[in-house]
Design brief:
Elements lengths: L6 H25 L11 H8 L7 E16 L2 E9 L11 E4 L3 E8 L8 E3 L23 E7 L4 E6 L11 E7 L11 E5 L9 H8 L21 H7 L18 E5 L23
Parallel strand pairs: 1-4, 3-8, 9-10
Antiparallel strand pairs: 1-2, 4-6, 5-7, 7-8
Helix pairs in contact: 3-4
Length: 286
């Protein structure tokens, strides 16, 4: 007959074995090196950047992020945030143009009442220039400037936008066109169409987001939450419950001119009718 085992002794022995295993694992980890991360200033990054094909040309821009009043249609004015260069603030930031292989340097001056950033949507660039705080950089605080500096690896149709909170829903965006230096299309014009939706009624982007039942994280699931979100107003609930609608517009263009289409809408799908559309495989998405 097997002698009985005292329960207290059994638990004590099990505890000692568990502690011994934990101590052994801890001792082993002490001898193992900690994970080694590659930082933006490390030589590996510089070596990779040197391998990029370069044109030898540098294109410079300066974007100013600030508040302003815009007239979107006769009798309709909206107070919003946006980015401008030399001209006055408009409903769309300036279109930036460069060629594949160019070095693009963009200084962003923040004159907004809160921190901001600028994300280069779809571009295969170095991580510390991607503009998605807090993951790839610290936010650009009020009154500060940040210089985005990177080489354009691919031609195509891209856009830039704030990656902080819901700022991209306040005109904090614009088109970035990277031209193909080897283009043989013969197009005589290069037209850019940016489609966006605006809240002209008494509802802010935060109120509409609350009406949609979404959380108030930073734009595109990046960034840090801002202040406490406002409650969904009756106007915001009315706007998001309208379902679908149609807005018709037309444009005449020469037959040899492509139109680059960028949709920056927050919650609507745009379907151009009567156009032959295709996705440029050279244009990335991100």
């Amino acid at each position: 007959m097997t002698p009985g085992v005292d329960r207290r002794r059994l638990l004590g022995a099990a505890g000692a074995m568990a502690f011994g295993a934990f101590a052994a694992a801890a001792l082993r980890s002490c001898g193992e090196p900690s994970p080694s991360y590659i930082h933006a200033t490390d030589p590996e990054i510089a070596q990779t950047e040197q391998k990029r094909r370069r044109s030898g040309r540098t294109v410079r821009h300066r974007l100013v992020a600030e508040e302003g009043m815009l007239s979107l249609e006769p009798g309709k004015y909206v107070s919003t945030w946006g980015v401008r260069e030399d001209a006055a603030l408009a409903a769309l930031g300036p279109t930036l143009r460069a060629s594949r292989g160019d070095r693009l340097v963009v200084d962003v001056d923040n004159r907004l009442p809160e921190a901001t950033s600028m994300h280069w949507h779809g571009l295969r660039i170095r991580n510390d220039m991607d503009g998605a705080p807090p993951d790839t950089q610290a936010p650009i605080s009020t009154g500060e400037r940040f210089a985005y500096d990177f080489v354009l690896p691919d031609h195509g149709t891209y856009w830039y936008h704030s990656h902080s909170g819901l700022q991209a829903d306040r005109s904090m965006f614009g088109a970035l066109i990277v031209e193909d230096p080897d283009d043989t299309s013969g197009a005589d014009l290069d037209l850019v169409l940016v489609i966006d939706d605006w809240l002209l009624e008494s509802a802010s982007p935060e109120e509409v987001l609350s009406a949609l039942g979404a959380d108030h994280q930073g734009g595109h699931d990046h960034g840090s939450p801002g202040s406490a979100p406002p409650a969904a107003s009756e106007e915001a609930i009315r706007l998001v419950s309208q379902g679908r609608g149609t807005r018709r517009c037309s444009a005449d263009r020469p037959s040899t001119s492509p139109i680059r289409c960028i949709s920056s809408t927050a919650a609507r799908r745009q379907t151009p009718q009567g156009w032959r559309c295709h996705r440029d495989p050279a244009s990335g998405s991100g």
